[in-house]
């Protein structure tokens, strides 16, 4: 993806806002504005849309850029799938994108909402794979339970089709290790079944997994929060089946 010829680049990856004065620290996390809602949010909590190189007819196609790495200008959205589908059907998305990519002939795929869903799901599974290779993922019910009771886990996750008994057993171990017995805290049920997790991690029958590193847990939380929000779900709080947005994620992962 690139910016069409003769188009002036407008950076959408600006630095964090400067401090108001010498004694006030600068914000550590750059914000972006959703072109549909007008609301601002942390860069890692929104999804970037980019455009492809112009085809033979001079048209650029709008595509999701979940890792925000495509060169050139971009537009950011932070709405749910239902809201995106409505904006697409009523022409509001076309108008917003035309303003964001002024002077560019655009083609918006009719299945853009589905493309976004797939891109966010892929971003989550790729993040889990990266954390596995970095040694931050714990697999296997017995290993997870042992490390959970020892308080060595930062995040507990279950496949969507994990059995209730299996979840309860690990959730209990999770609460013991967090000195939170009786609180009802539990791991997060992912919007991915065991088949999808097994493919993502290259392991057989992945039903439960955990993160043993707090920075890794935040990175996974960020990817999961975007997917849950887009799908119309809530963003649960860590350890309570809910997931709060992690804001700026640490991308210093060797992978």
Automatic annotation (TrEMBL):
A Pfam family per the record: YlxR
Domain of life of the organism encoding this protein: Bacteria
SUPFAM superfamilies: L30e-like (SSF55315), YlxR-like (SSF64376)
Highest classification ranks of the organism: Bacteria, Pseudomonadati, Pseudomonadota, Alphaproteobacteria, Sphingomonadales
Protein name from the UniProt record: DUF448 domain-containing protein
Domain named YlxR: residues: 32-101
Region Disordered, residue ranges: 1-27
């Amino acid at each position: 993806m690139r910016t069409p010829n003769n188009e002036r680049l407008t950076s959408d990856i600006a630095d964090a806002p400067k401090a108001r004065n010498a004694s006030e620290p600068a914000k550590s996390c750059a914000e972006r504005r959703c072109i549909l809602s007008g609301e601002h949010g942390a860069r890692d909590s929104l999804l970037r849309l980019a455009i492809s190189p112009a085809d033979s007819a001079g048209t650029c196609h709008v595509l999701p850029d979940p890792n925000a790495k495509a060169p050139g200008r971009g537009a950011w959205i932070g709405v749910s799938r239902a809201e995106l589908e409505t904006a697409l059907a009523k022409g509001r998305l076309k108008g917003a994108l035309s303003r964001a990519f002024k002077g560019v002939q655009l083609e918006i795929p009719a299945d853009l909402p589905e493309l976004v869903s797939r891109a966010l799901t892929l971003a989550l599974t790729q993040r889990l794979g990266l954390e596995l290779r970095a040694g931050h993922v714990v697999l296997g019910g017995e290993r997870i339970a042992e490390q959970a009771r020892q308080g060595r886990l930062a995040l507990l996750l279950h496949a969507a089709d994990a059995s209730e008994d299996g979840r309860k057993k690990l959730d209990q171990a999770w609460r013991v290790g967090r000195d939170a017995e009786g609180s009802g805290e539990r791991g997060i049920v992912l919007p991915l079944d065991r088949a999808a997790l097994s493919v993502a991690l290259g392991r057989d029958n992945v039903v439960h997994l955990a993160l043993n590193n707090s920075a890794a847990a935040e990175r996974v939380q960020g990817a999961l929060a975007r997917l849950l929000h887009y799908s119309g779900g809530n963003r649960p709080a860590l350890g309570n089946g809910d997931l709060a947005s992690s804001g700026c994620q640490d991308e210093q992962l060797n992978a």
